[in-house]
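tmp note - Amylo-alpha-1,6-glucosidase
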Amino acid sequence: MFTLDLRERPFTDRGSRLLVMAADDGSLWIARALYETRLSETTVLKGLRLFRGDEELTVRQAYPDRIDFDGGLTLAFAGPETLVLTGAGARAVWEGGEAAVDGSFTLVGEGRHEGVPEKAAARWASWFAKLPAVREDLRERAEMAWWTLAVNLIDIRGRESLVPSKYGYVGLWNWDSYFHAIALRHADPALAREQIRILLDNQRPDGLIPDVVHDHGVLSETTDLPRSDLARLAQHVGGEPIREVVPVTKPPLTAWAVWKIHEAAPDAGFLEEVYPKLVRSQEWWFERSDPDGDGLAEYLHPYSSGLDDSPIWDDGPRAEPPDLNSYLALQYDRLADIATTLGRAGEAAAWREKAQALTDLMIERRWTGERFRTLVGDVVAEVRTPLDLMPLFTGRLPKEIADRLVADLRSPSFWGERPVPTVAFDDPRHDPDAMWRGPVWLNVNYLLADGLRRSGYDAAAGELVTRTLAMVRDGGGLYEYWNPETGRKAQRATTGFGWSAALFADLAITSGA
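out:
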């Protein structure tokens, strides 16, 4: 069983907002995870130390179900809001408080509880038993991924929601939830469906699926811009950036995720429930997010792309990289699959026609003979990103175009020991540590591998998966993104990241034991 370092991997529990972490001075501190709030502002208790006489009892080891201290003391969760110390003959000392530990002592929460460590161990054993078989060399990291998924489950407005991370991302984000559901389908398809339902239950009347569902409501529009856009706009207007309310969502992968859940655990009733909402979402992109009316949807805001700080946005806050209409073309095919399952053959045929027509339009207007162009307003963005390759996701490209994209993927621009950088290795804007400006993100690799298989390039997909699994296995943890040169955590990446855990787990499971 893997252990927790109490820094990158805090001690926490499914359903709990409490995190027990190691401070620089060797003590422990406890904070509460809240939406858009730093942990330093939500401290519950700090400076925690245990003593027997004058001897300090330090942490011996931390596990998913408990923290063991010298002297036989144990800290475990009795419930989401309750932490209990078990042992005898010790003192717990913290900033502003002190108490004797004799048997079972409630450190945070209310009441005294018996048998807490045993119950916590049984609870975690039950969760880990749901992890399907994986290769032995991947097992420790897969167990860490499985733990990450569990501890990132919290209650948001009365519904169990899987958040990206209790370190900073305490809300149910749109496309994160699709990736989370892909892993959950293997053990708890009902919970996977619930992640989709939460988003669709908050869909706007115009069809937009919100960016975030959080403790205080939803985020479906914003005046905010990433740092690159703020700097650019400030230059244009004498230091005061232009602000306007813009709708925000995330890339249209809802039907894709719904179908993956259905393939693992068929449920026609769920398909019937979500189908009209998926149709409304698909229509939104062409009715509300195609400002020039050319039939190719655009991201109206960087946040809607999910690639907030990509250099694509250095030339403006509205863009049309090749991934968006590729996702929409695949969505048409997944709507057709759902319609077929529901016995709506005519609708299915219409969706297939739309999938091909959108793919053909992308080729006609955006294929240069070498690559698919990214437009930022009316300007062609020259930066090279793996989004150039995402039309493979459609599975509908002519072979000569697909071959060209695969060759580009396998070239030194994108291929290496740890592919795929989010800006090409040979692009002058490549930065291996800066968010979407060079690091490897698991969702990009996962979507590319999915598209490669759909386009008939199974060998390339298999190699990409193999290299991705090796990078995560050997990289030290489950991060938001990885430095492609070192294979380790990129400097500013969040730890314990939900979709990295989910997609690693799914790839490990589907790669076979």
